[in-house]
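Hypothesis: this fold can be encoded by more than one sequence.
Test: take the structure tokens below, design a sequence, compare later.
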């Protein structure tokens, strides 16, 4: 390989990685929801904690480190819905980016 092709490949890889970082940042900011007096992140950890309990009402620490009493089932459904929606969009864009490579 000559220097020009190495530079071109390096620039393409950098642009691809930058685009992936942009997507990760874009979608990581879309998983937050204000609900039941708290600010929640729709992530696997929060969904798993809510799924583990069986009580109707539980007290959780929100993303602002405040204790909030929540209707567990209602919050779980909202977080699962948001997570699914955001991850589906993220995956579609990521797949398009990978196919351009």
């Amino acid at each position: 390989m000559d220097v020009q092709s190495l530079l071109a490949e390096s620039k393409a890889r950098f642009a691809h990685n930058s685009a992936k970082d942009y997507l990760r940042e874009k979608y990581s900011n879309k998983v937050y929801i204000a609900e039941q007096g708290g600010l929640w992140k729709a992530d696997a950890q929060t969904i798993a904690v809510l799924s583990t309990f069986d009580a109707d009402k539980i007290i959780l620490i929100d993303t602002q480190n405040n204790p909030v009493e929540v209707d567990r089932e209602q919050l779980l459904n909202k977080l699962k819905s948001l997570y699914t929606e955001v991850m589906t969009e993220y995956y579609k864009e990521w797949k398009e980016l990978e196919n351009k490579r």
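The first strand starts at residue 32 and ends at 35. Residues 16 and 98 are 8 Å apart (CA to CA).
Hypothesis status: open.
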